[in-house]
């Protein structure tokens, strides 16, 4: 009986109050944000406080790149410390949020364009837990991840995301975790302490991305390579950009957008985050 109730929770339609959950694109930045209290983490926590508590969180993280698409389907996902060179304190962090195999199966079933694998090996990488632990510090909300098929282009990911819109009606908060502008090779490490320091091309592209998002110009964002050299500097590889594409695919017609944490870091990164709906 309990399993039937759990299944119905994700198949009966709208949330109990009839609201459709927003979707979020989060600029996650350094793994150190996982243990720091700063303006960025306050923005994440404040955003979580401004919406109803979700039935679950589904994250598309820049740090789970696969062949094919997969969703975590274990009861208790592990905390993955997928980085190096940081303080031991960061490696000791555990975020023991439960998983939800029923939701994982329901998510996979929604996608008709490709087969979504049910994964029992991955867990929660730092693109997920460093953000979500500030949003839901009690780790009492189930958290799942959806992988990025890295052999596919932005248009493919945009279309796949649209197939998952029904989850928003079922109380699931979907988060894309990456960075709009993300060029680690060009980081000005000596400028990390300067607030909102960004190269001209990084600030230019951040504004262009925001304008296209505000205007609902998804085609321009999908075909970002047409924006010229500044775009190639902002997105030398699309891993941190694809999570934004997923959130665009999940956006409903006419839904409002709001930006927060809209700052550059180290010259070549932006933490700009977006709430849709």
TrEMBL record:
Needed cofactors, names only, are: Zn(2+)
Q: Which InterPro entries match?
A: Extradiol_dOase_DODA, Xdiol_dOase_suB
Gene3D superfamilies, per database record: LigB-like (3.40.830.10)
Q: Which GO terms describe its molecular function?
A: ferrous iron binding; oxidoreductase activity, acting on single donors with incorporation of molecular oxygen, incorporation of two atoms of oxygen; zinc ion binding
Q: Which UniProt keywords apply?
A: Dioxygenase, Metal-binding, Oxidoreductase, Zinc
Would I find Phosphoprotein among this entry's keywords? no
This protein's source sits in the domain of life called: Bacteria
Record-annotated Extradiol ring-cleavage dioxygenase class III enzyme subunit B domain positions: 44-253
Is ATP-binding tagged as a keyword? Answer: no
CDD domains under this entry? 45_DOPA_Dioxygenase (cd07363)
Q: A Pfam family this protein belongs to?
A: LigB
Q: Which family does it belong to?
A: Belongs to the DODA-type extradiol aromatic ring-opening dioxygenase family.
This one is known as 4,5-DOPA-extradiol dioxygenase
């Amino acid at each position: 009986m309990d399993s039937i109730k759990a299944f119905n929770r994700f198949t009966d339609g709208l949330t109990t109050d009839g609201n459709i959950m927003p979707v979020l694109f989060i600029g996650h930045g350094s793994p150190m944000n996982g243990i720091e209290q700063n303006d960025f983490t306050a923005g994440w926590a404040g955003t979580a406080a401004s919406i109803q508590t979700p039935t679950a969180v589904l994250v598309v993280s820049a740090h789970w790149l696969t062949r094919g698409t997969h969703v975590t389907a274990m009861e208790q996902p592990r905390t993955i410390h997928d980085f190096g060179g940081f303080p031991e304190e960061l490696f000791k962090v555990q975020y023991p949020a439960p998983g939800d195999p029923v939701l994982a199966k329901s998510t996979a079933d929604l996608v008709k364009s490709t087969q979504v694998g049910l994964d029992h090996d991955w867990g929660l990488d730092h693109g997920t837990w460093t953000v979500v632990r500030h949003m839901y510090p009690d780790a009492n909300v189930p958290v799942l991840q959806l992988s990025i098929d890295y052999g596919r282009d932005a248009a493919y990911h945009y279309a796949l995301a649209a197939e998952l819109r029904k989850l928003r009606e079922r109380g699931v908060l979907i988060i894309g975790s990456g960075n709009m502008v993300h060029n680690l090779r060009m980081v000005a490490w000596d400028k990390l302490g300067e607030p909102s320091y960004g190269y001209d091309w990084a600030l230019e592209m951040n504004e262009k991305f925001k304008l296209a998002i505000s205007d609902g110009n998804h085609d321009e964002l999908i075909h970002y390579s047409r924006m010229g050299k500044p775009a190639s500097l902002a997105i030398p590889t699309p891993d941190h950009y694809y999570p934004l594409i997923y959130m665009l695919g999940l956006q409903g017609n006419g839904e409002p957008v709001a930006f927060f944490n809209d700052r550059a870091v180290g010259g070549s990164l932006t933490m700009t985050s977006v709430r849709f709906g």
